[in-house]
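Hi, does anyone understand the following?
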Amino acid sequence: IWSTNDGSLLAEWKQPDGEPVVSYSCLACGFVGKKRRKERGTLLLALGTSNGDILAVDVLTGEMKWKSTGRHPGGLAGLAFAKKGRSLHVVGTNGMASEMKSEMGEVIREFKASEKPISSSAFLCEEKIFALASSEVRILSLENGEEVLKFSDDVGPLQYVSASDGAKIIITAGYGEKHLQVWRCDISSKTVNKGPALSMRHSPVAIDCKNSPNGEDGTVILAVAESGVAYSWDLKTVSQDEKTNPAKITVKLKKADADQQNSVNVKKSRTSIIAARLNDLEADGQKTITGLHDLESEAATASAQNEKKSKKRAASDPDLETTRDVVDGECFTFKENLIT
């Protein structure tokens, strides 16, 4: 867990040696209560596993606070802390949603959010409502479980969903698709209008969106592609016919890391971004993005023949030709001007 103020490592946790290998499907992190200083507060890390277990760890002490098993067979689709960290909202792939006391794991309430399996979820509006994705998108209240909006993508199962504050804009992506679909929503009138499809060269592995910071009818969208490139769009309006080119973001290796890779016969200077999200949007046309990149994904021994093939692929990949390189490091934060 890193601090986004200065990029320093705040805390870390690893599965104890000797325990069975576990596949984690989602996580959430949050301070409990008002004390947010490292030496005074409780920093909880909640982990959801692919078999439906939930673990809560105090990462500042390494103590396992509690573990819940068997409540969500099939796995977890989403976790989020709320109420100053005192509550943990949980969505299972089986369609069950629940609220738990974060420090003890006691279930406060539980309800059936969907009769269909859930592939992805997104929490918004200070965790008061949430979006569920399957073959359709549903917006529900976390307070009473009531549905406030529903619409169908009409293209098949959805893999990812993200929503801006107030669910004014919803972004979806289907399995294997190389584009994001934009939806403009109005919860008060229960209407949904289809916006533009934003093309990518590769399928996304993470998406995020926020409302325009200056009050206009627009949105800022971020996507990380499986190729390790991040895309950023600034849509002034959300209309069916709107066309816009994204800013493409890559991360350059530090010189020491590049020298290390060269020592194993790999001459790439770009590493893969594996996760990112929008933090702050400012009215003066800047946004702050925090992300994580994977150095080891590029550090592999290659023969001269494979190096030659890699160079050919790089030369033909427009992502590599048009991207702007930004700061490096395991966890990076940077600002850039909004680009349309």
Notes: The helical segments are 255-262, 304-316, 318-322.
